[in-house]
Design goal:
Distance between the termini: 22 Å
Number of domains: 1
Keywords: Iron, Metal-binding
Number of strands: 0
Shape: elongated
Protein name: Bacteriohemerythrin
GO molecular function: metal ion binding
Bound molecules: fe (ii) ion
Structural class: mainly alpha
Helix content: over 70%
Radius of gyration: 16 Å
Pfam family, one: Hemerythrin
Strand content: under 5%
Oligomer: single chain
Order of helices and strands: HHHHHH
CATH topology: Four Helix Bundle (Hemerythrin (Met), subunit A)
Family: Belongs to the hemerythrin family.
């Protein structure tokens, strides 16, 4: 695969039918694609560290918002889903440390792990909560209006996109 090819191509099949969540999932895919290009083109440790930082920060922001949605909607499998998020953050943190401290060539291993994880998570448990919420009659549209404002504030405080742009 050359660096000009798209590593993780977004497909409408990944939609969970909640725009705010879909947008964030697509942004995670964008960051993974950016990481793929940086690794393929050997853009250097500083650039890669910046992208990893953005990936970590955006993943945390996204999980926080998704967990807030499930909690607000009193979703029955909330705790189990939250646990999946926690596990991924720990794995991601380990992979980042492995790269940053030990400088092991783990990028491609990390990329394929994250791609598979994200795909399976979206099409599995994320789709499951989205369907459950909509079947229970939870007003996702009203929640989204409120959440969008909160998300803007969270993004502001994290400034993740500045790291992203610099990369
Ligand atoms: Fe999730």
């Amino acid at each position: 695969m050359s660096a000009d090819e798209v590593f993780f191509k977004w497909s409408p099949a990944y939609s969970v039918n909640i725009k705010t969540i879909d947008d964030q999932h697509q942004e995670l895919v964008n960051i993974l694609n950016r990481l793929f290009v940086a690794v393929s083109k050997r853009e250097g440790d500083k650039v890669i560290a910046g992208i990893l930082d953005a990936l970590m920060s955006y993943t945390q922001t996204h999980f926080t918002l998704e967990e807030r949605l499930m909690r607000d909607a009193k979703y029955i499998d909330f705790e189990a889903h939250k646990h999946e998020h926690k596990k991924l953050l720990e794995q991601l943190d380990q992979l980042c440390k492995k790269h940053l401290l030990e400088e092991k060539p783990i990028y491609f291993e990390m990329l394929s792990f994250l791609k598979t994880w994200l795909k399976e998570h979206i099409q599995g448990v994320d789709t499951k909560y989205s369907q459950a919420l909509q079947q229970a009659g939870f007003s996702v549209a009203a929640w989204e209006r409120e959440a969008s404002a909160e998300f803007a504030l969270m993004s502001n405080s994290k400034k993740w996109w500045e790291v992203w742009k610099a990369a």
